[in-house]
Specification:
This protein is 31% helix and 21% strand. It has 14 helices and 22 strands. The strands form four sheets. The chain has a seven-stranded mixed beta sheet. The longest helix is centred in the first third of the chain and has 28 residues. The protein is globular and about 65 Å long. The termini are close together.
């Protein structure tokens, strides 16, 4: 019996910075390689060295393309990692898109810090550059879902789609005589555009996300809720602003809004504007890999025709000052940056407008502040009073809730000997730990950053 060691370098005790290490006698594998986002104390960890010699890592496996799972890859490669990075085809295309955008923002932030002299580092440098990101792409290798890949003599892995976004997968690693599953981020059982999460049937150990481990999503009909708030806002001659993740959420939104218009539940002539170059590019990738969704390519092309997609920042000011009621879908999803801030600066102080929060809002983000009923929002150094209606719609979440996570575990014919919880804030981790142990009688451990667990 060969011993394995699991060690989380990130994504333990928090929902960001996912990096989980599997050390075996033959290979050391890093599952996900994400950036920390959110509060400053978390972001600062991106600049700290990992608690492992990078030369020890042989292979990286990427479950999906979100920045908190892929954003550290250029830094890993820049600092000497030379191995293969395995992922599905849609994940490869989305990861390239996200890493180039991340690198561009890092370069711009360093440039601004130097220009305005608000840095203690002279000069300020980006975490990584566009050139660093592009170099890492040479190490990307794609895999097919449900196909076993031999990684070494006694280790093989298999990817299974898990919803969340296109290309997202859970990963099974069979090492000698033990099976360990890394869940990745598990999607909803009823997505408008993605098949329900697939599942494995046996595991010795399960490393599992717990983003919504302490809550159930609203069971109210999502289409009804969206239609209600859109019509309410239009009646008051206001705007509906939807901060959105560019990958996954934005595409699901334009699909649902198209359906609402087709069903005559919102006005046909109501403009829908997607103001995000990254969301536009991610939509192109969604069309290219339409077979990974439940919507065919022709239908996607028809939906896109009914959306005003703005790629140019120069047009944003014109849209902001257009007095006609409209729906704005803009990044970023947690209001940490992006074009949505330009709309909020103009619209958040007006009670006629509605801000729809449709995804997870991490600690320390403007999105979390709005959900916590903050009376003002600081944007680009200035405070703006919050008078617009702030409405949370959890039905659009890309993450399974507590009951869906429990049901995903129940599908194992041979339950895991132990479950290790990651990718959750402390309250979610603890609630899910108790629920699993009480309902399923499976031992659960909450992983702590850099703690080693022997399997």
């Amino acid at each position: 019996m060969d011993t394995m060691i699991i060690k989380s370098l990130g994504g333990a005790g928090t929902v960001t910075g996912s990096k989980h290490l599997l050390k075996t006698s033959e290979l050391t594998i890093l599952i996900d390689c994400g950036l920390f986002q959110g509060i400053k104390a978390l972001r600062e960890q991106n600049w700290e060295s990992l608690s492992i010699d990078l030369a020890e890592i042989d292979i990286v496996i990427l479950t999906h393309a979100h920045l908190d799972h892929c954003g550290y890859i250029p830094l890993l490669v820049k600092n000497g990692f030379k191995g293969k990075i395995y992922m599905t085809e849609p994940t490869r295309e989305l990861t390239k898109l996200i890493l180039l955008d991340s690198a561009k923002l890092q370069e711009e932030d360093a440039e601004k810090a130097n220009y305005h002299h608000y840095t203690k580092h002279h000069p300020a440098k980006p975490l990584y550059t566009i050139n660093d990101a592009e170099k890492s792409f040479k190490q990307f290798f794609t895999v097919k879902e449900n196909t076993s890949i031999q990684l070494s003599n006694h280790i093989h892995c298999r990817f299974k789609p898990c919803g969340h976004i296109i290309g997202a997968c859970s990963v099974e690693i069979v090492c000698f005589d033990k099976t360990i599953i890394f869940s990745g981020d598990i999607g909803r059982s009823h997505s408008a555009i993605l098949p329900p999460p697939d599942f494995f049937t046996k595991a010795d150990f399960l490393v599992m996300e717990s983003t919504y481990g302490d809550r159930l999503h609203d069971s109210t009909d999502l289409y009804d809720s969206l239609a209600h708030w859109i019509n309410h806002t239009v009646k008051n001659h206001g705007n509906v602003i939807i901060p959105s993740f560019a990958v996954g959420r934005a595409q699901e939104l334009i699909y649902i809004l198209y359906q609402l218009k087709e069903q005559n539940r919102i006005p046909h002539n109501l403009p829908i504007i997607m103001d995000s170059p990254m969301a536009a590019s991610a939509t192109d990738i969604m069309v290219e890999y339409a077979e990974y969704t439940t919507v065919d390519r022709d239908k996607w092309l028809e939906i896109i025709e009914h959306v005003n997609i703005n790629r140019e920042y120069a047009n944003t000011a014109e849209i902001v000052h257009d007095k006609q009621s409209k729906i704005i879908i803009a990044g970023s999803g947690m209001l940490t940056g992006g074009r949505v801030l330009e709309y909020l600066k103009h619209d958040i102080g007006n009670s006629r407008n509605t801000v729809l929060i449709v995804g997870f809002q991490a600690e320390g983000t403007r999105g979390r502040a709005l959900l916590n009923e903050s009376h003002e929002l600081k944007i680009h150094g200035k405070y703006y009073p919050v008078k617009a209606k702030i409405v949370e719609l959890t039905g659009l979440s890309a993450h399974a809730d507590q009951s869906e996570l429990i049901e995903w575990i129940r599908k194992y014919k041979n339950p895991p000997r132990q479950i290790m919880l990651v990718h959750g804030e402390p309250s979610a981790l603890e609630a899910l730990r108790v629920k699993i142990q009480t309902d399923l009688k499976i031992p659960v451990k909450i992983l702590i950053k850099d703690m080693e667990v022997v399997c």
